[in-house]
Amino acid sequence: MNNVFKITLAAALIMSAASTAQAESKGKITFTGLIINDTCDIKIGDKDDVNYEVAFPATHPEHYGSPGAVGVQKDFTMELTNCEPGTLTGVSAAFKGSSGTTDNTFEVLKLDSGTAKNVGIRLYSNHKGTEIPVKLDGSRPADADFAAFTDAGNGTKSASLKYTAKVVQVGDKLPEAGDYTASATYELVYN
Predict the structure, then answer these.
(1) How does pLDDT run across 150-178, given as a tens digit for each residue?
(2) Is residue 52 classed as helix, strand or coil in its secondary structure?
(3) Which ranges in the chain belong to alpha helices (H)?
(4) Which of 30, 154, 155, 182 is least surrounded, with the fewest CB atoms within 10 Å of its CB?
(5) Residues 104-130: tens digit of each pLDDT
(6) Residues 6+ apart with CB under 8 A from 126
(7) Where residue 94 sits, what CATH number does that domain have?
(8) Which residues span the domain enclosing 74?
(9) In angstroms, what is the C-alpha Rg of the chain?
(10) Is residue 102 situated within a structural domain?
(11) Are 175 and 117 in contact (CB under 8 A)?
């Protein structure tokens, strides 16, 4: 009799576990998101335009000296105004080098054209007061790289994205004299 009770109890426990597992095999996943218009007017430097040219001053090969050495640099700011109010809290930009990058870190732009050799362009965001290297592969910027929107007072938001572009030596050889051009496309990314 004792064995019959144990077998009956074991069967009841197994059936209970099976019905519990079966009840938990269903659920629901909800997907939410936001589709937004191009939400901001862009002004870079002194131009109300989405395109901008960073013109570096002339430099000499002696200003460099080792891989990654900076010869010259220039700051610029992307002013974003009349941004859609919505629930957006921050903005950054994803950059992609037109001719790619010089190595697998995706942080130094290859030159598009020109006769100069052994140089590339590094881009840093510094809208939070600290230079953060920008990946130039089109990937989403790190969370630390987003600038917070501020209330513009007219029902819209605004933000400033500050950058520093640097001409750097690529490889062990000193840069060779000549002109150079490098370019990158960008796309605003919102939080």
Answers:
(1) 998 888 899 999 999 999 999 999 999 99
(2) coil
(3) 2-23
(4) 30
(5) 899 999 999 999 999 999 999 998 888
(6) 75, 132, 162, 163, 164
(7) 2.60.40.1090
(8) 41-190
(9) 27
(10) yes
(11) yes
